[in-house]
Amino acid sequence: MVNSFEAAKEKLTAYLTETKKSKTIARYNVLKAAYEQESCFTAEQLYQQMNGKERVCYATIYNTLLILLECNLIVKYRLDNDMSQYYKVASVTDYHHFLVCSECGAMRKFTDVRLQNTIRGKIFKGFKAQKHTLAIYGLCTACARKKKNKK
Ligand SMILES: [Zn+2]
Questions:
Q1: Count of domains in the chain?
Q2: What is the tens place of the pLDDT at every residue in 17-36?
Q3: H-helix or E-strand containing 108?
Q4: How many angstroms is it from 38 CA to the middle of ligand 1?
Q5: Distance between Cα 136 and ligand 1 center (Å)
Q6: 100: CATH
Q7: What distance in angstroms lies between residue 51's CA and the mean position of ligand 1's atoms?
Q8: Whether this model's pTM surpasses 0.85
Q9: How far is 145 from 18, CA to CA, in rounded Å?
Q10: By CB count within 10 A, which of 8, 10, 29, 59 is most buried?
């Protein structure tokens, strides 16, 4: 996940610059620790893991997680019968969203980070989701024009 971490770092830097927040080493360390998680994690888990290596206070971790949520680098959710707040790294690579023309079959990719995170943030009982494909069917411009001219 090296490449996606580099991309995430760039996105965080851009966000911190834009919102005039300071680019502290601790914030980047929290991002790195989040990217090292195999699956979902809680702020407490991150805190315990990070303090094995370096000293970082819980408030810093919690505040950084809020920043990462704001710039869509992670998603948060709750599990049934569990009061803990879970977080998961939002990947921008393993998903596909398409617009498909039902007349000629033309396909076009599109990106919607919020939609992607909503789907990725979903937890299914007894099923571990890995990736998803979403297709929206309709008419491309050319086919829509042809249909209109026939009428
Ligand atoms: Zn078409």
A1: 2
A2: 999 999 999 999 999 999 88
A3: strand 107-109
A4: 41
A5: 13
A6: 3.30.1490.190
A7: 56
A8: no
A9: 42
A10: 8
